[in-house]
Amino acid sequence: MARAAGNRNIQAKLVLLGDMGTGKTSLVLRFVKGQFYDYQESTIGAAFFTQVLSLNEATIKFDIWDTAGQERYHSLAPMYYRGAAAAVVVYDITSKESFQRAKKWVLEIQRQGNPNVIMVLVANKADLDTKRDVGNEEGEQYAKENGLLFFETSAKTAQNVNELFYEIAKRVAKAVPLRPGGMKLHRRSQERGRRLFCCSGSSPFGSDDCNINSW
């Protein structure tokens, strides 16, 4: 997709959280590579991806951390969601347990994460509607009560996958106001940028000195 003239370039850290088997990796692969595999090996620790989305108002480069869902990796999660601009919490519509676990992730991010983080609750595997254990209304209501965006997706059919990430990108762009005439931010906005955006694509530990990047 072509960039608009004079477009801003914004680099943003995005993290996916949720139980093992909810389809986090499948969502990322569908978004980044347009691929889906019926069998996807479990992520160990975390996997890293990048993807660029071009909007009218900005071009967003996502640094995406896909975290492992196994309990033994839970203690590592703060390394990945610290400094994230957006957190995507995923559950499987066929598993009530994964929905309850998603609620715990939401609480953890709210307590320990950035108060300005864009948080999205994602009900994945919509293609398995006949095996549904969590109603759409239930997930949507929980998201509404907790101030979250809500999407029901299917990595297999690509339902709402691009829409999910484009909505996040639009909100990221709105969260970074620019002065007329250039990339520089007001000091207050710049400090907010330090909290929201990570410029470290090579380390899971991020950086306390991160800011908006040009690339």
UniProtKB/TrEMBL annotation:
**UniProt entry tagged with the keyword Membrane:** yes
Instruction: Please give one Gene Ontology molecular function term for this protein.
Output: GTP binding
How does the protein associate with the membrane? Lipid-anchor
Alphabetized, the UniProt keywords read:
GTP-binding, Lipoprotein, Membrane, Nucleotide-binding, Prenylation, Protein transport, Transport
Instruction: Tell me which Gene Ontology terms the entry assigns under biological process.
Output: protein transport; vacuolar transport
Q: Where in the cell is it found?
A: Endomembrane system
Name the domain of life this protein comes from. Answer: Eukaryota
- An example Gene Ontology cellular component term from the record? cytoplasm
Pfam families membership:
Ras (PF00071)
Q: Which NCBIfam families match?
A: small_GTP
- Family assignment? Belongs to the small GTPase superfamily. Rab family.
Name the record gives this protein: Rab5
